[in-house]
Write the structure tokens for this entry.
Amino acid sequence: MRIGMLGTGMVGQTLASKLASLGHDVFMGAREADNERARKWVEKTGGTAQRGTFAGAAHYGEVLFNCTLGAASLDALEQAGAEHLEGKVLVDVSNPLDFSKGMPPSLFVSNDDSLAEQLQRAYPKARVVKALNTINAGVMVDPGRIADGEHATFLSGNDSDAKEIVRGILASFGWKQIIDLGDVTSARGSEMYLPLWVRMWGALGDANFNIKIVRS
Ligand SMILES: NC(=O)c1ccc[n+]([C@@H]2O[C@H](COP(=O)([O-])OP(=O)(O)OC[C@H]3O[C@@H](n4cnc5c(N)ncnc54)[C@H](OP(=O)(O)O)[C@@H]3O)[C@@H](O)[C@H]2O)c1
């Protein structure tokens, strides 16, 4: 599958490396075509992956991942170009974290709206699927490192076919407990989990944790 990775940070690089290792063709995009982190990442792949701008990645990918700073995701998608988002599965891994008042961050959108909904409203022809935003990057691509992979990850989005495509990608990473929360408004829940995630990170002193859903 052709993957357009929007983002050069820890999440973009981790997901891009995993997807490339599974045989996908990955194009990593940034604000500038000569982004240093993207250049180094492509070098690590042995030059098999591609790099360029957000627009280049969005044009290339059949499935796109939004791994940009939440506060900048709308700007990043504008740079990607509406024409390149049309009909594409857009896996939104971003979180609406507001670091302007220091740590712990607050959320710049919550309760009756979410960042995923903002992206979906701005690009109604994109098929936004919120996924993986509740987990540290290392665990995203290697769920088996905790509890034999028996812990939860969530999907939110309006397009059932798009969610099935994302479910398949997550299963290929080793995810077993993939819970479809419903339409894109359900992303409010997974995004509003972040304040708890941040506090658990502090309390546990380790980011490699997750939650497991148990029931009778
Ligand atoms: N870190 C984690 O483990 C984790 C886990 C779950 C979810 N998330 C979420 O995943 C997203 C990525 O996190 P991250 O830690 O990998 O990286 P990050 O530092 O949050 O974001 C890096 C990306 O944001 C882009 N960016 C920054 N400012 C921008 C602007 N003004 N306009 C357009 N693009 C801009 C950067 O573009 P350039 O490439 O051009 O510099 C870069 O590609 C975030 O939303 C984060 O909340 C992170």
